[in-house]
Amino acid sequence: xxxxxxxxxxxxxxxxxxxxxxxxxxxxxxxxxxxxxxxxxxxxxxxxxxxxxxxxxxxxxxxxxxxxxxxxxxxxxxxxxxxxxxxxxxxxxxxxxxxxxxxxxxxxxxxxxxxxxxxxxxxxxxxxxxxxxxxxxxxxxxxxxxxxxxxxxxxxxxxxxxxxxxxxxx
Length: 170
Hints:
The protein is mainly alpha-helical. It is globular. 20% of the residues are buried. A three-stranded mixed sheet has the order 1-2-3. It contains eight helices and three strands. It has helices at residues 8-23, 34-43, 48-64, 74-82, 114-128, 132-137, 150-155, 158-169, and strands at 87-88, 98-103, 139-144.
């Protein structure tokens, strides 16, 4: 289904087909609201098998990284977000693609850990993924490593790097 021809009947049918797959996987039934499932369907251009795989990957990441999903609120992460980790630009490009910028070299390692940055990234991506244009067009991520030094590198563990990769693959 082409997202430009997306209509309510097609949405309803696609969401129901996705729900039918979820029923067979009880660990995936945390959220089966239309609005939530449409995120995955739109991201995969309504190719239901791909949308289902994306949903499975999302829940696998969430299950394997529970600590990143606790305290996932603006209030809890205000100090990280105010430092620009990440900075989601208010306007997207001409297609509606949002742009997220991370100024990695400005990370104050005395103020917060990589875990807080990861949580802020997840929170920002979760919020952005509620926007239809983002669901259809995605997000560009720009990483600026100006000012990055060995102190920053020493804070990174292999597990954190894997989490970063997973966040952007899911």
